[in-house]
């Protein structure tokens, strides 16, 4: 059985987003800059001389090694679009298909101060911020190489998870990440990176060694523990597109493990009791076990529990036996690392949806959650377990603040252009109800324009420091958008 992020636990149980780089996400790249190198070159116009009029697109086109696609060009409708068709009505001023850091620098030099600039990797921004009306999309999709180098891997910012997993599996290495194959590595990492082996190996951003970043002043910087440390801190969970445009990432990896995947289905009407049992059970399990629970709205409300275990079937069977809930069916399968990542992958087709999120810190009443889902046929509450290695990092050590949380909740509902407003209202109602039930906060990779007090929800006590980093690296708000740091 194949389980995808959206169906993830419709069958079992998960970039710039990255606000503007990708979130649930693809892509041939030039040789990567070696760690430690920084190549300052062109700079954007000084803040005191804000230019007037549109950018000189001909000048930018002459500087790019990739293509510049304008509204009058053939293929613009395809070039501009993100993952969610709800945002196909957005009309950016241009799409720059960049191939190297110098192309990104040229984009800043030409367009900074004149119009909004947004990076796009996988294009999964839940709020559509990677398709800015009247703005310049800097599409990093062509920078997609995945180079395994011993126990590290250098990944272009445009690479998508399906390609990342394939290259790592071939080399016998593992990087914890999400389940959707078309999510961009950029958005996923920059928002933190909740994934299917997170309890054992941590978040994607926890494995980041360094990143090559072009900041709005046109400089190519290496952000790492010993170079631009504040920027490095912010890139690990501070959201995509907030401080600069990343062109490549260097991660440490682990040896690829064998994984046993599982799926438990429960009778209709039992969702509240199963959620209560699951919340008590998960913290007692070893970090080798990752699990999630999907509550599906309707009448009756149904639920499924699924997950991945770094280990064999015998030990997993014992652990599942301690879950105080009786499934109506159970499946279990031992797979290679690559096979397990494929198991959690779903269709790469575009999907029209509305989504938001909440965070469970202390257990919430399962009956309340079930009641919230009742009547919302087609809506899923995808509850992904945290803890384990995620909690081994202090909340202030990276920008991702939810280190002590029990789980994240993604509220996901299919939509059409015709019923979008009604679906959005339903999602907001459920999100508010979850907060009333004790699940506050939110995950920045599931950006929601309607999220109350969004900065606190996404960043908690780290918000003030993120604001300062943004002022340092983007003092003129070149990359500013509605929910930027």
UniProtKB/TrEMBL annotation:
Keywords assigned: FAD, Flavoprotein, Oxidoreductase, Signal
PROSITE patterns listed in its UniProt record: FAD_PCMH, PROKAR_LIPOPROTEIN, TAT
Positions of the FAD-binding PCMH-type domain: 87-256
Region (Disordered): 24-58
The keyword Flavoprotein is assigned to this record: yes
This protein's record includes keyword Flavoprotein: yes
Pfam families to which the protein is assigned, alphabetical: BBE, FAD_binding_4
Gene3D superfamilies documented for this protein: 3.30.465.10, 3.40.462.20, Uridine Diphospho-n-acetylenolpyruvylglucosamine Reductase, domain 2
Signal peptide limits: 1-21
Cofactor(s) named in the record: FAD
MF terms (GO), sorted A to Z: FAD binding; oxidoreductase activity
Ranges of Pro residues composition bias in the record: 43-54
Family membership noted in the UniProt record: Belongs to the oxygen-dependent FAD-linked oxidoreductase family.
Name of protein: FAD-binding oxidoreductase
